[in-house]
Automatic annotation (TrEMBL):
Pfam families, per the entry: SMC_N
RecF/RecN/SMC N-terminal domain boundaries: 13-493
Gene3D superfamilies membership: P-loop containing nucleotide triphosphate hydrolases (3.40.50.300)
Stated role: May be involved in recombinational repair of damaged DNA.
Keywords: ATP-binding, Coiled coil, DNA damage, DNA repair, Nucleotide-binding
Entry GO CC: bacterial nucleoid
Gene of this entry: recN
UniProt keyword Coiled coil present: yes
Name of this chain's protein: DNA repair protein RecN
Domain of life: Bacteria
Originating organism: Candidatus Coprovicinus avistercoris
InterPro entries associated with the record: DNA_recomb/repair_RecN, P-loop_NTPase, RecF/RecN/SMC_N
SUPFAM superfamilies the UniProt entry points to: P-loop containing nucleoside triphosphate hydrolases
GO molecular function terms noted in the UniProt entry: ATP binding
GO BP terms in the entry: DNA recombination; DNA repair; SOS response
Length: 546
């Protein structure tokens, strides 16, 4: 919901700010005071295109700033829009540059400008199925999930069938090429991990003689005649003999004794290593030939062995598809038929859930329209089956809300409603019936009270109050009956500045100031009797809210 909104140099507004309530916020004022300018600022906040014509005369640019929060995100988003007099615009979202589209898809998706055809989600038929499913709840969610899974299963089955058919339709040249590739690779018969093993063992085999000689030379130097071990033994004996006269030499003798033991261990290990190194010309030749074979495959079908194995699998699939006499295709066709049966059943179940609920939702909307004294006007929800090739994630049918202006007249799409006031009241009825299911936090109503008076005005006020229990509602109104229901009340008025230029200001009303505005709305003038009535209406509104 909109936590705050600030506008600078928007039409007749030099500087203005509002902080809408969580529930119902009302905007009142005489015709021409500048309420349209405030609505223009709201449009910019939710991601509509900037219009240089909104820039206040004499100003370089307009600026609209706002903060939009939600229960899930109490910190919300900070929005800043700037539109220069030359038409250039700038969007900032949480301090970062953003596009108008990003703003509309993010912040804009939480706000509906009801009565403004250009920003009303309910006027878009594509949203009607989402709203119906949301209103139904978990039953629709489960049925739709089952349908989506069945649709994915059918799509995968058809894709596999098409792949097999493409393979079978492959020309003889492709098949022959695949046969040649498969035969060439399978002749070598490469194994996964074989190359890596050869790369590790082949160097040892190629240099076996050198490795054996190195081990033997080292061992003889350590443990042969006159080798290091003999010399160490002589040194140890000399030190131990002299240690009778100086004990410090005993420490040296012990250290050398430890070193002698290490040399003996190393000499034993070198002997064992010699035993593991075997120079076998036949084995070496076999390993070198195998490496050459694998490298040849990689030069032709690589550059890596994994690429060779992929080409082998692709060639095998193509050859198998060409050789199996249609068995794979028959199996794939059967899988498609089974998937389609499953999908048809899931689609039928989803349609049944929607068809059962649609009249109940439509009746709830109609009940609200009757509260609003809209005569015999009705809302219906049409569910029309689609051809199989048009089935999508939303289902196998088209769901659309239709509006019948009066008994005996034809139903038509909501977007065809011409009257702004009529649109607003239909939207209001829909919103109340849908409750939280519409997925929108904030509703802004303009022209909702056009042509309304008497008992209808009171009914309209009560419906708006009901809607404000589930949404943040901002309404521009000329009806005192609506104005008294507001949790927060702003007056939009126009005056002339020191230079004689008209200027719109917006002020929050409370106490006697609000009483006076309600009195003006009641009778066109502020008299003691109209003020008394205004106080009475405000008290009644407060009591009804409690």
């Amino acid at each position: 919901m909109i936590d705050e909104l600030r506008a600078s140099n928007v039409a007749l507004i030099r500087e203005a700010a509002i902080e809408p309530a969580d529930g119902l916020t009302v905007l009142t004022g005489e015709t021409g005071a500048g309420k349209t300018a405030l609505l223009g600022a709201l449009k910019l906040l939710v991601g509509e295109r900037g219009d240089a014509g909104l820039v206040r005369e004499g100003a370089d640019a307009l600026v609209v700033e706002g903060r939009v929060v939600s229960a899930e995100d109490p910190e919300g988003h900070i929005v800043r829009r700037r539109v220069a007099a030359d038409g250039r615009g700038r969007v900032e979202l949480d301090g970062h540059m953003a596009s108008v589209r990003e703003l509309a898809e993010g912040v804009g998706s939480t706000v509906d400008l009801c009565g403004q055809h250009e920003h009303q989600r309910l006027l878009t038929p594509a949203t009607h199925v989402e709203l119906l499913d949301a209103w139904i709840g978990s039953v629709a969610a489960q049925a739709r999930q089952a349908y989506i899974e069945a649709l994915k299963e059918a799509q995968d089955a058809h894709a596999e069938l098409e792949r097999i058919r493409d393979a079978r339709r492959a020309d003889n040249t492709r098949v022959d090429q695949a046969r040649f590739v498969l035969a060439r690779i399978e002749e070598v018969h490469p194994q996964e991990g074989e190359l890596e093993e050869l790369e590790e063992t082949l160097p040892r085999a190629e240099h076996a003689e050198a490795l054996m000689l190195a081990a033997q030379t080292a061992r003889e130097a350590l443990f042969g005649d006159e080798g290091a071990s003999d010399k160490l033994s002589d040194a140890i004996a000399a030190l131990e003999d002299a240690a009778r006269y100086d004990e410090k030499l005993a420490t040296f003798a012990e250290t050398l004794q430890s070193a002698l033991l290490d040399i003996e261990d190393i000499a034993a290990a070198l002997r064992d290593y010699q035993d593991t190194v075997e120079f076998d010309p036949q084995t070496l030749d076999r390993m070198q030939n195998r490496m050459a074979q694998l490298q040849g495959l990689m030069r032709t079908y690589g550059p890596r062995m994994v690429d060779v194995l992929v080409k082998q699998q692709e060639a095998r699939e193509l050859v198998d598809a060409a050789d199996n006499n249609g068995e794979l295709e028959e199996a794939a066709e059967k899988a498609c038929e089974e998937a389609e049966v499953h999908l048809k059943a899931a689609a039928q179940h989803l349609d049944e859930v929607r068809q059962k609920a649609a009249p109940r939702l439509a009746q709830k909307v109609c009940d609200q329209m009757h509260r609003l004294e809209m005569g015999t006007a009705e809302i219906s929800i049409d569910i029309e089956s689609l051809p199989r090739d048009q089935w999508g994630p939303a289902g196998a049918s088209k769901v659309e809300m239709l509006y019948r202006p009066a008994e005996g007249m034809s139903a038509r799409p909501l977007r065809k409603i011409a009257s702004g006031g009529e649109v607003s009241r239909v939207m209001l009825a829909c919103k109340v019936a849908l409750g939280n299911a519409d997925g929108v936090d904030t509703l802004v109503f303009d022209e909702v009270d056009a042509g309304v008076g008497g008992a209808t005005a009171r009914a309209l006020a009560l419906v708006l109050a009901d809607l404000a229990k589930t949404h943040q509602v901002i309404v521009v109104t000329h009806l005192a009956q609506v104005a008294v229901m507001g949790t927060r009340h702003y007056l939009v008025r126009k005056h002339t500045d020191a230079l004689g230029i008209p200027e719109t200001e917006i002020v929050e009303l409370a106490g006697e100031d609000r009483v006076k505005e309600i009195a003006r709305m009641l009778s066109g003038e502020i008299s003691s009797s109209s003020q008394d009535l205004a106080r009475q209406m405000l008290e009644q509104a407060q009591q009804s809210d409690e």
